[in-house]
Specification:
Elements (H helix, E strand, L loop, with lengths): L18 E5 L5 H10 L3 E5 L3 H9 L6 H11 L7 E4 L10 E4 L14 H13 L5 E4 L7 H12 L9 E4 L18 E5 L2 H11 L6 E4 L2 H31 L4 H8 L23 H11 L5 H27 L8 E5 L14 H11 L3 E5 L26 E4 L16 E3 L4 H7 L1
Parallel strand pairs: 1-2, 1-4, 2-3, 4-5, 5-6, 7-8, 9-10, 9-11, 11-12
Antiparallel strand pairs: 6-7
Helix pairs in contact: 4-5, 7-9, 7-10, 10-11
Length: about 425
């Protein structure tokens, strides 16, 4: 068909003949919807934000290039009902399966914000019809699927495992990383019954290379919390060890590379300015919140999350220290922050440490600007200006390296006026 930029899914795909509703078209839901479509399913994409739906239709979304190409192909024919977008939650009634992919953030006190998840689950329960598969993928506390889906369905007279099929399968999206696409990443699933697990596994097998079954939704929920709590604790350790290296006059990156040559018992984690995005800054707090309510004490996890939370403040302290050593007052100092996004290759600002770093420096009186080719504009606190176009044209008092996107030219840097909070400049220089 004229105007298409990628081939359509084949009618004989593993999910051909099925209609799947995806509730929530964010960083998880939209790639999932595209993967389902590639597997041959008809897809109903549902999002309560009409602005988000407009952005999806126009291709103004943060996707990998190949995913964006696929999206443009699906949107090329507005009359094609095989990939339909709507803001109406009741559209789930037409689906054989419903995937709930809404955000589960925390508030400024690190308390789980369950409003979006609760509303999404309530809507799906309200519109559920017999025979459907209801699959929750949003990361949450242990027991969420039972409390927000299974029990309310029973109150409606629908038994999970008999009338409808309910399971939890945590998302495993790695934004901006094509090496870890859904088609390459195994999925974990736990259903309300053996029949629920098998029904969910059959669907997921169409978009994942393997499906690992566990015996309950609670086990699947804990799996995701375990994965990201493991990462958080090790990142906190990497930050602490990097600071130790700094005190001893060592560059931590070569030390990590050397340790990583051991083929067993070691996994490399890297220091940085903190953590951002949808998972590590949030998911462990769902576990901590639940365990505190049970009066369970988990000091290692709690300490790690506190240390991660303090990391941006530590970056600001080091920045001010570097300025003071150079005889430059922080008030009035010209500071460039390289990279606002929370990780390389994405435009996502959620929970990005750069936002707190920029705000704190601006509050201290610094003149802060930023360089990020993926974020042309952003709402920032204080006196932070929009992104610069020619960083080498200004005599910066300090450049703070936060996120280095692929292809970023840093040849203009003055090493004596640079604070590389991730200790990456050596690797970047070698790559050039």
């Amino acid at each position: 068909m004229a105007g298409r930029t990628a081939p359509r899914a084949r009618p004989g795909g593993p999910l051909a003949g099925r209609t799947v509703a995806v509730l929530g078209l964010g960083y998880v839901g939209l790639p999932t919807a595209l993967a389902l479509r590639d597997a041959g399913a008809d897809v109903v994409g549902i999002d309560v934000s009409t602005e988000r739906l407009r952005d999806v239709r126009a291709g103004r979304v943060d996707l990998l290039p190949e995913q964006l190409c696929r999206l443009q192909a699906e949107m090329a024919d507005p009359q094609d009902a095989s990939f339909r977008l709507t803001a109406e939650p009741a559209a789930v009634t037409a689906a054989d399966a419903v995937l709930i992919c809404v955000p589960t953030p925390v508030d400024r006190h690190q308390v789980p914000d369950l409003r979006m998840l609760s509303a999404a689950c309530a809507g799906v329960v309200r519109h559920a019809v017999p025979g459907q598969l209801l699959l929750l993928t949003s990361t949450s506390y242990v027991g969420t699927t039972r409390e927000l889906v299974i029990d309310p369905l029973r109150a409606r007279g629908l038994d999970a495992g008999t009338d409808v099929f309910v399971a939890f399968a945590p998302e495993r999206i790695d934004p901006g990383n094509s090496a870890h696409g859904q088609e390459r990443t195994p999925r974990v699933v736990g259903g309300a019954s053996a029949a629920c697990t098998e029904r969910a596994a059959d669907l997921l097998a169409g978009i994942a290379p393997a499906v690992h079954r566990v015996d309950s939704p609670e086990a699947a929920e804990m799996t995701k919390l375990w994965e990201n709590t493991f990462r958080a604790v090790n990142i906190a350790l990497a930050n602490e060890l990097a600071d130790s290296c700094h005190s001893l006059g060592l560059d931590p990156r070569p030390v990590i590379a050397a340790a990583a040559t051991k083929p067993f018992g070691f996994m490399p984690f890297y220091p940085g300015p903190g953590v951002g995005g949808h998972c590590i800054p949030c998911d462990p707090h769902y576990l901590l919140w639940q365990l505190r309510a049970r009066r369970e004490h988990v000091p290692l996890i709690d300490t790690a999350m506190r240390a991660i939370g303090r990391r941006p403040q530590e970056v600001v302290r080091r920045a001010c220290q570097r300025l003071a050593t150079a005889g430059v007052p922080t008030a009035g100092a010209r500071i460039l922050l390289v990279g606002l996004a929370y990780k390389e290759g994405v435009a996502d600002l959620r929970e990005s440490p750069a936002l707190e770093i920029a705000g704190r420096l601006a509050d201290a009186g610094a003149q802060v600007e930023y360089l990020d080719p993926l974020v042309p504009s952003a709402r920032l606190a204080g006196a932070v200006r929009s992104t610069v176009t020619d960083p080498g044209a200004t005599d910066w008092d300090l450049v703070v390296i936060h996120t280095v996107h692929p292809g970023t030219d840093l040849s203009w840097l003055d090493a004596d006026r640079t604070l590389d909070v991730g200790h990456r400049l050596g690797a970047v220089a070698a790559a050039r």
